[in-house]
Design brief:
Layout (H helix, E strand, L loop, with lengths): L5 H16 L4 H14 L3 H18 L7 H33 L19 H16 L9 H9 L12 H9 L8 H33 L7 H32 L17 H7 L2 H15 L6 H19 L3 H27 L8 H23 L3 H11 L14 H22 L1 H11 L2 H19 L12
Helix pairs in contact: 1-2, 2-6, 3-4, 3-5, 3-6, 4-5, 6-7, 8-9, 8-18, 9-14, 9-15, 9-16, 11-12, 12-13, 13-14, 14-15
């Protein structure tokens, strides 16, 4: 069920009415609402999700007992096996077929009929984090299965994150009955929900057909066209994914809850380390806390640190999808992060740390790294590793930067420039949100604000009457 559909809006409004009318019944209300939200993906998917939730919950109850270590690994292995089976089995079998020139799957094979359950990557990682945190006594196990279900399945973050931790979200679930209606929370909720809808239906969905048109014939793209296609896809996936995350924030605020921020204008990053602190932040933190640090982090020397970093980023790529292009995407960022660590070390040895304070250096670094990010997005978007590498090769050829080869592409370059300007504007909007809010209420009386809100709502509703495109990250 998409956030920007009438069906979801109806579900949310009914849930809100019951939620505030019957405070003592908030856990059951959200329990049922979450089931209704997810059952749209299929009854089988819901039953699987319920089974994994119950399994994880009961295992977590034994984590602080005498056999805690066994139950920790048993529950993690089962969760990972569930993800591997649905997401990677066919990919692994196809890889074996291609490597050894054998046929293991036929058109009638059962494996080819398996459908990836929506949100399985997100709820699996959330369950693993919860298990580890309970085992290490960072958080107590949930008081009831229903509370744990609401923690895992809250419809605002279920399908595409943010990935919430026990210490961040369980206290809010435990205190649901104490939450009171707040006009301030509803204003914040309306702001983030409107911002997300605008990003999705006005920006991302506008860019989508142009991106699809370019990548429909990847082999026929010139290097210059490849850059334009990569620019457009960079903004399509950002506006699409950040839209979902911000709509999730807004929905949570309506219910008096707060989710983690997942994006902080990532294309203004100067290096890969900063990028992953601003892009899909909750996944980045998960990878750091549950893979990079357990592998040894930076505690066992530089070579081991670089190796751990490379492995962690490669796993991040694999998490995104069952394809060698995603593996390569993760390895690419692993290599970038390693090179950046070495670059920092060399700057320190040469006494060049002051470069970072130069506005000119910062501007150049942002532009250069944005283009590196676009190269990575080719791996993410193109189907087939050979095709992706071939396009990247054309993009890096000298002819790709010939101004004459951009003839006929000026309209798209203008769109890209406009989108980047909006990205910069979003940075200042979030940075000065409090001050802008005070200014807005001081200089615009309530009737004027009401008219503007109504106009914005009307415009968004007109867009919603068209075909709703699914969110890109639903496939992960």
């Amino acid at each position: 069920m998409l956030f920007h559909t009438p069906e979801f809006i109806a579900l949310m409004l009914v849930s809100l009415a019951l939620y505030y009318a019957f405070p003592r019944w908030r856990v059951p209300v959200l329990t049922v609402a979450n089931m209704i939200f997810y059952v749209v993906a299929g009854v089988g998917n819901l039953l699987l999700f319920l089974a994994m939730t119950a399994f994880t919950y009961f295992c977590s109850k034994a984590l602080q007992g005498p056999r805690g270590r066994f139950f920790l690994w048993f529950s993690i292995v089962v969760n990972v096996a569930n993800l591997l089976f649905f997401k990677y089995t066919t990919f692994l079998i196809r890889s074996i077929e291609n490597t050894f020139s054998v046929q293991l799957l036929t058109q009638d094979s059962f494996m080819l009929k398996i459908v990836l359950p929506i949100g399985i990557s997100f709820y699996t990682f959330q369950m693993i984090a919860y298990l580890v945190d309970v085992y290490k006594k960072r958080w107590e196990p949930a008081h009831s299965l229903l509370r744990f279900w609401v923690f895992i399945s809250f419809f605002a973050h279920l399908v595409a994150g943010p990935i919430m931790r026990g210490k961040e979200f369980m206290p809010q679930i435990d205190n649901l009955t104490k939450i009171r209606f707040s006009a301030g929370n509803f204003r914040l909720g309306a702001f983030f929900l409107s911002l997300g809808i605008f990003k999705k239906v006005v920006l991302a969905d506008y860019i989508t057909p142009h991106v699809d048109s370019f990548f429909a014939n990847t082999a026929g793209l010139s290097g210059s066209e490849g850059w334009v296609a990569a620019y457009l896809f960079a903004f399509q996936i950002f506006f699409d994914f950040s839209a979902y995350s911000e709509m999730a924030l807004g929905i949570a605020y309506f219910f008096g809850m707060e989710l983690a921020v997942n994006f902080r204008t990532p294309y203004l990053s100067q290096n890969p380390t900063e990028f992953w602190r601003r892009w899909h932040i909750t996944l980045s933190n998960w990878i750091k806390d549950y893979i990079y640090i357990p592998l040894g982090g930076s505690r066992k020397g530089e070579v081991r640190q670089y190796t751990n970093l490379f492995i962690a980023m490669t796993i991040s790529g694999i998490w995104h999808g069952a394809s060698w292009t995603f593996v390569a995407w993760g390895m690419f960022y692993g290599a970038l992060a390693t090179i950046h660590k070495i670059y920092i070390m060399l700057k320190e040895k040469l006494g060049l740390q002051s470069l970072d304070k130069s506005r000119i250096y910062q501007g150049i670094a942002i532009i250069v790294f944005f283009h590196i990010t676009c190269i990575a997005w080719v791996l993410f978007r193109v189907n087939g590793l050979r095709e992706a590498l071939s396009l990247i090769g054309r993009m890096l050829s000298p002819s790709a930067f010939n101004p004459a080869h951009f003839a006929g592409l000026h309209f798209f370059l203008f769109i890209v420039a406009l989108l980047f300007a909006l990205h910069i504007g979003e940075y200042f909007l979030h940075r000065n949100r409090s001050e802008l809010g005070v200014w807005w209420h001081r200089y615009f009386p309530a009737p004027v604000r009401a008219v503007l809100y109504t106009a914005i709502a009307a415009i968004l509703i007109l867009y919603l009457k068209g075909e709703q495109n699914t969110f890109i990250y639903f496939q992960f």
